[in-house]
Protein backbone atom coordinates (compact mmCIF):
# COMPACT_ATOMS: atom_id res chain seq x y z
CA UNK A 1 0.00 0.00 0.00
CA UNK A 2 1.20 3.48 -0.79
CA UNK A 3 2.04 5.64 2.21
CA UNK A 4 2.75 9.32 2.93
CA UNK A 5 6.50 8.74 3.31
CA UNK A 6 8.51 11.12 1.14
CA UNK A 7 10.31 8.52 -0.94
CA UNK A 8 12.29 9.85 -3.88
CA UNK A 9 11.37 7.16 -6.38
CA UNK A 10 7.59 7.01 -5.94
CA UNK A 11 4.51 8.98 -7.00
CA UNK A 12 4.64 10.05 -10.61
CA UNK A 13 1.42 12.01 -10.11
CA UNK A 14 1.06 14.79 -12.65
CA UNK A 15 4.22 13.90 -14.57
CA UNK A 16 2.63 11.80 -17.30
CA UNK A 17 2.41 14.69 -19.78
CA UNK A 18 5.84 16.12 -19.01
CA UNK A 19 8.77 16.12 -21.45
CA UNK A 20 10.74 12.87 -21.49
CA UNK A 21 14.17 14.35 -20.68
CA UNK A 22 15.59 14.15 -17.18
CA UNK A 23 17.21 16.76 -15.00
CA UNK A 24 20.89 17.51 -14.91
CA UNK A 25 21.18 18.25 -11.23
CA UNK A 26 23.46 20.99 -9.86
CA UNK A 27 26.42 19.90 -7.76
CA UNK A 28 28.41 23.11 -7.35
CA UNK A 29 28.05 26.12 -5.09
CA UNK A 30 28.58 29.85 -5.44
CA UNK A 31 31.96 31.01 -4.15
CA UNK A 32 31.78 33.00 -0.94
CA UNK A 33 31.74 36.72 -1.50
CA UNK A 34 30.17 36.49 -4.95
CA UNK A 35 27.25 38.94 -5.25
CA UNK A 36 23.96 37.09 -4.97
CA UNK A 37 21.76 39.54 -6.84
CA UNK A 38 23.78 41.71 -9.25
CA UNK A 39 21.89 43.81 -11.73
CA UNK A 40 18.51 45.54 -11.44
CA UNK A 41 15.63 43.98 -9.58
CA UNK A 42 15.50 40.74 -7.65
CA UNK A 43 15.39 37.23 -9.11
CA UNK A 44 11.97 35.60 -9.37
CA UNK A 45 11.75 32.97 -6.65
CA UNK A 46 8.57 30.99 -6.01
CA UNK A 47 7.76 29.87 -2.48
CA UNK A 48 6.08 26.52 -1.95
CA UNK A 49 5.57 24.51 1.20
CA UNK A 50 3.66 21.24 0.83
CA UNK A 51 2.55 19.36 -2.29
CA UNK A 52 -0.14 16.91 -1.19
CA UNK A 53 -3.87 16.28 -0.91
CA UNK A 54 -5.46 17.91 2.15
CA UNK A 55 -9.12 18.37 2.97
CA UNK A 56 -8.35 21.09 5.55
CA UNK A 57 -5.57 23.61 5.04
CA UNK A 58 -6.22 26.81 7.06
CA UNK A 59 -2.78 28.29 6.36
CA UNK A 60 -3.05 27.59 2.61
CA UNK A 61 0.37 25.96 2.56
CA UNK A 62 -0.63 22.95 0.46
CA UNK A 63 -0.77 22.69 -3.33
CA UNK A 64 -2.35 19.57 -4.79
CA UNK A 65 -0.14 17.42 -7.02
CA UNK A 66 -2.46 18.10 -9.95
CA UNK A 67 -2.30 21.88 -9.52
CA UNK A 68 1.46 21.72 -8.95
CA UNK A 69 1.88 19.80 -12.21
CA UNK A 70 -0.17 22.50 -14.00
CA UNK A 71 2.00 25.27 -12.52
CA UNK A 72 5.24 23.57 -13.51
CA UNK A 73 3.84 22.87 -16.99
CA UNK A 74 2.96 26.58 -17.32
CA UNK A 75 6.52 27.59 -16.42
CA UNK A 76 7.86 25.20 -19.04
CA UNK A 77 5.34 26.26 -21.67
CA UNK A 78 6.22 29.95 -21.22
CA UNK A 79 9.93 29.29 -21.74
CA UNK A 80 10.98 29.30 -18.10
CA UNK A 81 13.04 26.74 -16.22
CA UNK A 82 12.76 26.13 -12.50
CA UNK A 83 16.05 25.83 -10.65
CA UNK A 84 17.42 25.80 -7.11
CA UNK A 85 18.29 29.15 -5.58
CA UNK A 86 21.93 28.02 -5.54
CA UNK A 87 21.82 27.51 -9.30
CA UNK A 88 19.87 30.73 -9.87
CA UNK A 89 22.39 32.82 -7.98
CA UNK A 90 25.33 31.30 -9.83
CA UNK A 91 23.65 31.89 -13.19
CA UNK A 92 22.69 35.46 -12.26
CA UNK A 93 26.25 36.30 -11.27
CA UNK A 94 27.35 35.17 -14.74
CA UNK A 95 24.53 37.00 -16.51
CA UNK A 96 22.98 33.69 -17.59
CA UNK A 97 19.74 33.72 -15.60
CA UNK A 98 17.37 34.68 -18.41
CA UNK A 99 14.27 32.51 -18.12
CA UNK A 100 15.31 30.93 -14.81
CA UNK A 101 12.92 30.83 -11.85
CA UNK A 102 13.95 29.82 -8.34
CA UNK A 103 11.79 27.07 -6.81
CA UNK A 104 11.80 26.77 -3.03
CA UNK A 105 10.01 24.44 -0.60
CA UNK A 106 9.92 25.53 3.04
CA UNK A 107 9.79 23.33 6.14
CA UNK A 108 11.06 20.10 4.56
CA UNK A 109 7.81 18.17 4.24
CA UNK A 110 8.14 14.53 3.27
CA UNK A 111 5.72 15.04 0.40
CA UNK A 112 8.44 17.03 -1.40
CA UNK A 113 10.09 13.73 -2.29
CA UNK A 114 6.87 11.89 -2.98
CA UNK A 115 5.04 14.37 -5.18
CA UNK A 116 7.18 17.38 -6.13
CA UNK A 117 10.44 15.68 -7.07
CA UNK A 118 9.03 13.36 -9.78
CA UNK A 119 7.20 16.23 -11.48
CA UNK A 120 10.19 18.57 -11.35
CA UNK A 121 12.53 15.82 -12.49
CA UNK A 122 10.35 15.05 -15.51
CA UNK A 123 10.68 18.65 -16.74
CA UNK A 124 14.41 18.90 -16.06
CA UNK A 125 13.75 21.36 -13.21
CA UNK A 126 15.61 21.56 -9.91
CA UNK A 127 14.65 23.14 -6.59
CA UNK A 128 15.73 23.94 -3.04
CA UNK A 129 14.26 22.30 0.06
CA UNK A 130 14.72 24.23 3.31
CA UNK A 131 14.63 21.83 6.25
CA UNK A 132 14.52 22.31 10.03
CA UNK A 133 17.79 20.70 11.07
CA UNK A 134 16.71 19.36 14.48
CA UNK A 135 13.24 18.15 13.43
CA UNK A 136 14.08 15.71 10.62
CA UNK A 137 11.78 12.71 10.70
CA UNK A 138 9.25 14.42 12.95
CA UNK A 139 6.20 16.53 12.07
CA UNK A 140 5.16 20.18 11.82
CA UNK A 141 4.11 20.63 15.45
CA UNK A 142 4.62 24.41 15.16
CA UNK A 143 1.42 24.63 13.07
CA UNK A 144 -1.13 24.35 15.86
CA UNK A 145 -4.22 24.59 13.64
CA UNK A 146 -2.90 23.03 10.45
CA UNK A 147 -2.88 19.39 9.36
CA UNK A 148 -0.08 17.25 10.76
CA UNK A 149 2.51 16.62 8.08
CA UNK A 150 5.52 14.32 8.22
CA UNK A 151 8.93 15.89 7.65
CA UNK A 152 11.75 14.46 5.59
CA UNK A 153 13.93 12.01 7.49
CA UNK A 154 17.71 12.14 7.77
CA UNK A 155 17.96 9.35 5.20
CA UNK A 156 15.66 11.12 2.75
CA UNK A 157 17.56 14.41 3.04
CA UNK A 158 20.82 12.53 2.47
CA UNK A 159 19.35 10.87 -0.62
CA UNK A 160 18.03 14.15 -2.00
CA UNK A 161 21.38 15.87 -1.55
CA UNK A 162 23.22 12.97 -3.17
CA UNK A 163 20.89 13.28 -6.17
CA UNK A 164 21.84 16.96 -6.50
CA UNK A 165 18.84 18.72 -4.96
CA UNK A 166 19.87 21.74 -2.89
CA UNK A 167 19.24 21.42 0.84
CA UNK A 168 19.14 24.69 2.79
CA UNK A 169 18.71 25.50 6.46
CA UNK A 170 15.40 26.58 7.97
CA UNK A 171 16.95 27.08 11.40
CA UNK A 172 16.23 25.06 14.54
CA UNK A 173 12.78 24.33 15.94
CA UNK A 174 11.12 26.48 13.25
CA UNK A 175 11.65 29.53 15.46
CA UNK A 176 11.29 33.10 14.22
CA UNK A 177 14.62 34.95 14.46
CA UNK A 178 13.72 38.62 15.01
CA UNK A 179 14.22 39.64 18.63
CA UNK A 180 16.49 36.75 19.59
CA UNK A 181 19.73 37.54 21.46
CA UNK A 182 22.92 37.44 19.43
CA UNK A 183 24.07 34.15 20.96
CA UNK A 184 20.76 32.46 20.05
CA UNK A 185 20.93 33.83 16.53
CA UNK A 186 24.41 32.31 16.20
CA UNK A 187 23.06 28.93 17.30
CA UNK A 188 20.05 29.10 14.97
CA UNK A 189 22.18 29.90 11.96
CA UNK A 190 25.52 28.26 12.71
CA UNK A 191 24.47 25.06 14.45
CA UNK A 192 21.70 24.32 11.97
CA UNK A 193 24.22 24.64 9.16
CA UNK A 194 26.71 22.32 10.85
CA UNK A 195 24.04 19.70 11.53
CA UNK A 196 22.87 19.72 7.93
CA UNK A 197 26.38 19.61 6.51
CA UNK A 198 26.89 16.38 8.42
CA UNK A 199 23.70 15.00 6.89
CA UNK A 200 24.34 16.05 3.29
CA UNK A 201 28.10 15.49 3.36
CA UNK A 202 28.90 18.87 1.89
CA UNK A 203 28.41 22.63 2.20
CA UNK A 204 25.03 24.14 3.04
CA UNK A 205 25.07 27.66 1.63
CA UNK A 206 21.43 28.77 1.74
CA UNK A 207 19.22 29.85 4.65
CA UNK A 208 15.48 30.53 4.81
CA UNK A 209 13.91 32.55 7.63
CA UNK A 210 11.12 30.69 9.45
CA UNK A 211 7.79 32.44 8.81
CA UNK A 212 9.72 34.76 6.50
CA UNK A 213 10.42 36.92 9.56
CA UNK A 214 13.65 38.89 9.25
CA UNK A 215 15.38 41.91 10.78
CA UNK A 216 18.88 43.36 10.48
CA UNK A 217 20.48 41.27 13.30
CA UNK A 218 19.10 38.11 11.68
CA UNK A 219 20.64 38.97 8.30
CA UNK A 220 23.99 39.70 9.95
CA UNK A 221 23.88 36.39 11.84
CA UNK A 222 23.19 34.51 8.59
CA UNK A 223 26.05 36.29 6.87
CA UNK A 224 28.43 35.66 9.76
CA UNK A 225 27.49 31.96 9.81
CA UNK A 226 28.96 31.66 6.32
CA UNK A 227 25.88 31.35 4.14
CA UNK A 228 25.94 32.73 0.61
CA UNK A 229 22.32 33.92 0.67
CA UNK A 230 19.07 33.84 2.62
CA UNK A 231 15.42 33.83 1.54
CA UNK A 232 12.76 36.01 3.12
CA UNK A 233 9.30 36.75 1.68
CA UNK A 234 8.50 40.44 1.47
CA UNK A 235 10.41 43.27 -0.18
CA UNK A 236 11.92 45.56 2.45
CA UNK A 237 14.81 47.86 3.20
CA UNK A 238 16.83 44.67 3.79
CA UNK A 239 16.13 43.21 0.35
CA UNK A 240 19.36 41.82 -1.05
CA UNK A 241 21.52 38.68 -0.86
CA UNK A 242 20.52 37.96 2.75
CA UNK A 243 16.82 38.84 2.41
CA UNK A 244 15.73 37.68 -1.02
CA UNK A 245 12.00 38.29 -1.64
CA UNK A 246 9.86 35.41 -2.84
CA UNK A 247 6.45 34.92 -4.40
CA UNK A 248 3.95 32.80 -2.48
CA UNK A 249 2.29 30.09 -4.58
CA UNK A 250 -0.96 28.44 -3.49
CA UNK A 251 -3.44 25.94 -4.81
CA UNK A 252 -5.54 28.66 -6.46
CA UNK A 253 -2.68 29.93 -8.62
CA UNK A 254 -2.90 29.14 -12.30
CA UNK A 255 -0.94 30.64 -15.16
CA UNK A 256 -2.77 33.98 -15.20
CA UNK A 257 -2.27 34.50 -11.46
CA UNK A 258 1.39 33.54 -11.70
CA UNK A 259 1.89 36.01 -14.53
CA UNK A 260 0.22 38.73 -12.44
CA UNK A 261 2.41 37.91 -9.46
CA UNK A 262 5.50 38.22 -11.64
CA UNK A 263 4.29 41.69 -12.66
CA UNK A 264 3.72 42.67 -9.04
CA UNK A 265 7.25 41.64 -8.17
CA UNK A 266 8.65 43.90 -10.88
CA UNK A 267 6.59 46.77 -9.47
CA UNK A 268 7.79 46.08 -5.93
CA UNK A 269 11.39 46.00 -7.17
CA UNK A 270 10.88 49.46 -8.67
CA UNK A 271 9.33 50.82 -5.48
CA UNK A 272 12.09 49.33 -3.32
CA UNK A 273 14.74 50.86 -5.57
CA UNK A 274 13.07 54.28 -5.47
CA UNK A 275 12.86 54.20 -1.68
CA UNK A 276 16.51 53.31 -1.38
CA UNK A 277 17.57 56.11 -3.70
CA UNK A 278 15.37 58.59 -1.81
CA UNK A 279 16.94 57.56 1.47
CA UNK A 280 20.49 58.25 0.35
How would you describe the overall organization of this protein?
This protein has 280 residues and is α/β, with parallel strands linked by helices. It is 34% helix and 12% strand. The protein is built from 7 helices and 10 strands. The chain has helices spanning 65-77, 85-93, 111-122, 154-162, 182-200, 216-224, 255-279; strands spanning 45-48, 50-51, 62-63, 81-83, 100-105, 128-131, 166-169, 206-208, 229-231, 247-248. The strands form 3 sheets. Strands 1, 4, 5, 6, 7 and 10 form a 6-stranded parallel sheet that branches. Strands 2-3 form a two-stranded parallel sheet. Strand 5, helix 3 (111-122) and strand 6 form a beta-alpha-beta unit. Helix 1 (65-77) runs parallel beside helix 3 and helix 5 (182-200) packs across helix 6. It is globular. The relative contact order is 0.17.
Amino acid sequence: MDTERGTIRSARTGAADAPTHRARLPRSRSPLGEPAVPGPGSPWILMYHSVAVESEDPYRLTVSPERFAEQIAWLHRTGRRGVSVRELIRARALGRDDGLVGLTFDDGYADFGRYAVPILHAYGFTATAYVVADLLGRSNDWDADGPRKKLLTVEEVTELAAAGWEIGSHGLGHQALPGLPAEELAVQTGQSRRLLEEVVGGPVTGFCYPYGAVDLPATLAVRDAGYDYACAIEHSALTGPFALPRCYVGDRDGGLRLRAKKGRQRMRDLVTGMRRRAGR
